[in-house]
Structures are given as structure tokens and as C-alpha cells.
């Protein structure tokens, strides 16, 4: 059986139930040998920058995934790099480390697929890894709603989870069943609003992330002011 590594990259500012559900879904679909979580160092498309520091984002990831079906390795290489975070660079490194035969599956939500053609050297990504893309409320997975260049690139690559698991790169599995309407943007806003959130229609932070992560945020005074 092919050695399979599922990889979830993200800003995780902070990690929330949507991230854990996305990773869990693909662990169940792919049965990977390894799950890696890769916090971005300098996610260049997030123009406003990140609010929490790298050490806090890593600490929160460890807490959020402590009960996961497969205990992930938190891979900090993108944080240690002092240049903007380009996935193509990370996947080149990983391919060199894992060898030509490993199945690498980069996981993402539908919002990222919608703008995949804005990623640096995006067409090279398919030579390096497979992709597992999950539905996300507010974003379409259907080809008719994707940028035409992305839809064209995807069409011949669509595959079942079993095919992706046994393929080293170039295949894409779409998972339509995820429906977690949570974003870190909304979560940061709820945390900043604090007690005021109780008096509004806003969802409470406790509904959006793991209790141990919320405790960490409160103990370390993150997302205040
Ligand atoms: N609710 C969700 N459902 C499906 N995928 C998600 C969800 N939230 C995040 N993801 C995916 O997880 C990865 C990392 O996301 P990220 O850390 O940027 O969180 P975010 O909630 O999108 O953050 P922000 O609101 O700050 O943009 C991305 O591939 C993103 O598509
Ligand atoms: O390589 C790129 O140009 C690129 C552009 C946008 C996003 N990404 C990656 O996609 C993942 C999710 O990004 P984000 O912004 O939703 O946290 C994370 O691993 C980013 O490094 C990568």
C-alpha cells in the first residue's frame, strides 16, 4: 500500500471546529498513514497579517487536535522560513523528503479552491501532490462556479478517495458533505466583542472552537482590544 501523508495548511488564527472537521473528514476518507498540520509563517494573501504569534498558534493547534482520530504532527517548517509562505516551496521540500512514491494529499476548503489560480506556481502543485477539497458554506465546489482555468485543470483530475490515496500526485478528491459554517475571522470578531457578544446575534466563541483552545486564549490574553 502506498505511504499516504495528508497535509492541512492554514493560518489557524486561531484553529477552530472547521479545521478539525476538515482534517477528520479526510482522515476517514483516506486513512492516511500520517496527518500533518502546517501553520503558515507569512500567509502572503492575508494582507492584514496575523493576530496571534507563531508560538501561540502552534500551542493552540496541539490542544485542538489532542483528541483527534490520528494524532497529527505539527510541521513548523513554514514558520521557521523567514520568507512569504508559498505552498509550492513546501511541497517541493516534502516531496524530496518523502520520496517519489508517497501519496501526498494537501487538504483545503472550497474558499481556497475558488482562488487556487492566484497561488504562486499553482499549476506546478499538481505535479507535487494530490488535493482533498471540502465544501464550505458560502463557497461553491461545483465546476460551473470555479474560475475557468481551475475548472479546466480539475476536470481530468477528479478521483475517488481510494484513487487519491494510491496516487502520488495530480488527483483531486472533492468532499461535498462538510458543512461547518465557521471562520477564524468570525471567531476573532466574537472574541474581540467579548461579553458584548452575549447581547448580540453573534455566535459565542465557545460554539466555534474547542474548550481547551478557548481556555488557552483567555489565559494568554489573545484576541483582546
Ligand atoms: N469552516 C470550514 N470548512 C471547510 N474548510 C475550512 C473551514 N475553515 C477553514 N477551512 C480551510 O482550512 C484551511 C485553513 O484556513 P484558515 O486558517 O485560513 O481559516 P479561516 O477560517 O479560513 O481563516 P480566516 O477567516 O482568517 O480567513 C483553508 O484551506 C480553509 O479553506
Ligand atoms: O502558495 C501560495 O501562493 C498560497 C496562497 C494562498 C494560500 N496558500 C496556502 O493555503 C493554506 C490556507 O491558507 P489560509 O490563507 O486560508 O490560511 C495555507 O497553507 C497557505 O499557505 C498558499
UniProtKB/TrEMBL annotation:
Any GO MF annotation of the entry: nicotinate-nucleotide adenylyltransferase activity
Pathways involved: Cofactor biosynthesis; NAD(+) biosynthesis; deamido-NAD(+) from nicotinate D-ribonucleotide: step 1/1
Keyword Nucleotidyltransferase: yes
EC number(s) from the headed UniProt entry: 2.7.7.18
Enzyme class: transferase
Keywords, sorted A to Z: ATP-binding, NAD, Nucleotide-binding, Nucleotidyltransferase, Pyridine nucleotide biosynthesis, Transferase
Domain Cytidyltransferase-like: 7-189
Domain of life: Bacteria
Catalytic activity: nicotinate beta-D-ribonucleotide + ATP + H(+) = deamido-NAD(+) + diphosphate
InterPro entries with a match to the protein in the record: Cyt_trans-like, NadD/NMNAT, Rossmann-like_a/b/a_fold
Family per similarity comment: Belongs to the NadD family.
Function: Catalyzes the reversible adenylation of nicotinate mononucleotide (NaMN) to nicotinic acid adenine dinucleotide (NaAD).
Protein's name in the database: Probable nicotinate-nucleotide adenylyltransferase
Species this protein is from: Massilia aerilata
